[in-house]
Amino acid sequence: MSGGERVNCGALRAADAGKEVELFGWVARRRDHGGLIFIDVRDRWGAVQVVFNPADATQAHAAASELRGEYVVRVTGSVRKRPAGSENPRMATGEVEVLAKGVEILSTSKTPPFPIEGEEQDVDESLRLKYRYLDLRRPHMQRFLEIRHRVNKVTHAYFDEQDFLEVETPILTKSTPEGARDFLVPSRLYPGKFFALPQSPQQLKQLLMVAGVGRYYQIAHCMRDEDLRADRAAEFTQLDMEMSFPTEETIFEVLEGLFGRLWKELAGVDLPRPWPRIDMKESLLRYGTDKPDLRFDLEIADLSQVLAQTEAQVFRKVLGERGVVRGMAVPGGKDLTRKELDELVVLAKGAGGQGLAWVPGPLDKFLSEKELAGIRAATKAGDGDVVLIAADRRRRAEKVMGIMRTEIARRRGLVRDQEWRFLWVYPMYLFDEDDEGNMTYGHHPFTRPMEGDIPIIDTRPYDVRAHSYDIVCNGYELGSGSLRIYRRDLQERVFEILGLSHETIQERFGHLLEAFEYGVPPHGGFAFGMDRVIMLLGGTDNIRDVIAFPKTQSTQDLLFEAPSDVDPDQLDELGLALKPKPTGGGRRQPASPGAP
Ligand code: ASP
Known about the structure:
Blueprint: E1 5-6, E2 20-33, E3 36-43, E4 46-52, H1 58-64, E5 72-81, E6 96-107, H2 125-130, H3 132-135, H4 139-161, E7 165-166, E8 184-186, E9 194-196, H5 202-210, E10 215-223, E11 235-244, H6 248-267, E12 277-278, H7 280-287, E13 300-302, H8 313-320, E14 324-330, H9 338-350, E15 357-359, H10 369-379, E16 386-392, H11 394-411, E17 422-425, E18 428-429, E19 431-433, E20 439-441, E21 465-466, E22 468-473, E23 476-483, H12 488-497, H13 502-515, E24 523-529, H14 530-538, H15 568-574
Parallel strand pairs: 1-2, 4-6, 7-10, 12-17
Antiparallel strand pairs: 2-3, 2-5, 3-4, 5-6, 8-9, 10-11, 11-24, 13-14, 14-16, 15-16, 17-22, 18-21, 19-20, 22-23, 23-24
The chain binds aspartic acid (ASP).
Residues 178, 200, 202, 480-482, 525-527 line the site of aspartic acid.
């Protein structure tokens, strides 16, 4: 079978009419039209229609009758314009077709477990993951691979222009606390000892600053043994960067520049700069979350002052116990039905809140005119509005109101879908309370407190602001960073406040503290989740769509069936013996992030 010009399936256009071509690809679709056989041949670049005419090429036509979906073929033939009226505007190659002279089957295929053609068919995800190579063959999945490739390219080019050095850091390393459990790798050569897989290259990039690298970046694989959470993956990719002698402004400028470039090149959007900044506590108050979605205008107000003297028991009790009252006006909300309000109460309780009140509503009779007017003024409620109110411990009230804010925006169609609202949450705080009320770090224990707040570090630790910042876009936290502690004494003090013993500090961080004695440039940096950025640019809510070979949400690899049993010899070599499986089914809770 003589060849022609070797072309990609998606490349042919009207101007190519008359060319002799050679194509390789998969049989996407096959139609037998009384004598004429049509197939679409697909590769990564698109698909093109091929016609087999028994009168022109008897042998090729006979061979074409053997073709089935997903067979891999080599086709030779000539390009011609499709007869008028039979063009297909939905295909980029829709003005032409290839009149086949020959076809060769390079590989046959069983019927795939789900259709490869047909845009984004709703296929069971475990089937997709088991047959990931077929899933990835689907054109919309190839698009995600392409976006990822382009994001990486733009990122590399940008950091190169900015004089950053890409440095690769090891996968087998020692634990760096980022708030999750480590994956451990047993050492064969040192029985009983373990490596940890990196939760991030945090300490390594700090050491690179001590080494004088000045500006470092890396697209780094990170592994965190997370419990099941919809928005987390055990294995993910971070854009990791670190700079010497920066201020927050230096870092903000580099990153706003990068995101500006990415959004311009991948979404054709000019992101306005500089991005707004909001103090974390203010964000929690006004938006009920530290990752606010600013594509809608609803705002939460503190009503604790307005209700300080109230007779209404529900509020009195909470305020008496040092809780807070928060409210939010729902524009036009007087039309909310009792059923809708009850649904909101269920949501509030589901979030751990005590409930939800509203004004005007059943509580009005317990509130004075002045209090009612105060509530309306604080929440800027108009005549047709209803004010939703939560009274609770601060963290819970914030959470409930944050959920109300997104729920009301969703139900009432208030989200401006076309907008990209980037912002900095800055400053953040050095310490935080975990869900059990224990003290933990806000970002990670290497974060530098604001100098002016160091005097209150022991007395009012929760008020200590940190040189720490998050990037948030459309309600997603994309990443975090901070300026770092670069003095041994201060680093030790922060570890101690977090409850680490002298021995633990020495054992786990001795190398870093020692490095801090050899000339450390003040430094700081940032890391953001590449997967999340690609999700936003690709328009998917599923993080697994943008990872070529992802784990399931419960951290299994369905294609390789991992994790899997290993050969007893391998365990012997490692000096390991398996205990009987734990009974009772309960998953062990992660170690408190406060104890890195
Ligand atoms: N290592 C941090 C993280 O993974 C980011 C940083 O502080 O640079 O979140």
